[in-house]
């Protein structure tokens, strides 16, 4: 039978052992290649994950650009710092520092052309005078306002011959001890026009003028607030900073003494106190 014939047949031995060895070697090589390929893939993934973030570096470069922008801004700020702010500019640029910013606080006085005012003729009698804040020729800030002391405030124009004549009289009165106790004397250098000569600082310092001098501004703001009628102009205030009297024009030492005393006592001068010589126009 067929089954018997097949069963009775003996298996045929493998006739090519060398081929079998070659096959096994090939399989081993393929397996090794597969393992190597997987390792390379994993290594590539690891390298990719650990690679530096170039995008972050680009942003860092952008930060350097921002720092340059900041440097540019700083350079711009430095140049602007060299410029004086408008609010701090000296208004006396064209007057060689003879004028300066001044602040006035309070209602202006009523105008008066009277040579010497008294109780009947002073339109601002008993009115609190404006407060002046300004600077001296040396730049020191000064405020002339209510402080419990009587005051005499002179408004002087450097080009006015009557002012030039009165300044030494004022100083001589002070030197002679004729200034009443409790009275302070101030001056305001105003209506500056250097083209007319006699620069105010050199003039007053040359006279040895001791009272504190405040520089008015280019617009003569302080002068306007006190409503001068002529030069020299003086306002006499009591200890409450209230108007007692005013004078327009130069006066002699006798009349000056009476008016200083009026400020000290707070009492307006009598109608016959004297007269003032007509001075320069304010």
Task: Give a nutshell description of this structure.
With 282 residues, this protein is of the alpha+beta class. Helix content is 39%, strand content 16%.
Describe this protein's structure:
- With 282 residues, this protein is of the alpha+beta class.
- It has a domain of 184 residues: Glutaredoxin (3-Layer(aba) Sandwich), CATH 3.40.30.
- It is 39% helix and 16% strand.
- The chain contains seven helices and ten strands.
- The strands form three sheets. Strands 6-5-4-8-9 form a five-stranded mixed sheet, covered by helices on one side. A three-stranded antiparallel sheet has the order 1-2-3.
- It is globular and about 40 Å long.
- It starts with a helix and ends with a strand.
- The N terminus is likely disordered.
């Amino acid at each position: 039978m067929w089954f018997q014939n097949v069963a009775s047949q003996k298996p045929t031995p493998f006739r090519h052992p060398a081929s079998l060895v070659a096959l096994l070697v090939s399989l081993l090589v393929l397996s090794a290649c597969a393992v190597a390929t997987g390792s390379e893939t994993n290594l590539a993934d690891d390298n990719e994950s650990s690679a530096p973030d170039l995008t972050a570096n680009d942003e860092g470069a952008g930060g350097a650009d921002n720092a340059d922008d900041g440097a540019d801004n700083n350079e711009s700020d430095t140049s602007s710092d060299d410029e004086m702010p408008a609010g701090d500019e000296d208004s006396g640029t064209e007057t060689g520092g003879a004028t300066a910013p001044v602040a006035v606080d309070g209602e202006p006085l009523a105008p008066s052309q009277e040579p010497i005012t008294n109780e009947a003729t002073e339109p601002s009698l008993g009115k609190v005078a404006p407060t002046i804040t300004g600077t001296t020729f040396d730049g020191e800030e000064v405020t002339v306002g209510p402080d419990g002391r009587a005051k005499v405030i002179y408004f002087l124009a450097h080009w006015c011959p009557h002012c030039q004549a009165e300044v030494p009289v004022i100083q001589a009165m002070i030197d002679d001890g004729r200034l009443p106790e409790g009275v302070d004397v101030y001056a305001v250098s105003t209506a500056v026009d250097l083209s007319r000569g006699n620069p105010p600082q050199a003039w007053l310092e040359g006279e040895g003028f001791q009272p504190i001098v405040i520089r008015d501004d280019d617009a003569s703001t302080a002068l306007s607030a006190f409503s001068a009628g002529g030069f020299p102009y003086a306002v006499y205030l009591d200890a409450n900073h209230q108007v007692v009297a005013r004078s327009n024009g130069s006066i002699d030492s006798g009349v000056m003494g009476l008016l200083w005393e009026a400020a000290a006592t707070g009492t307006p001068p009598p109608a016959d106190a004297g007269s003032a010589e007509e001075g320069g126009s304010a």
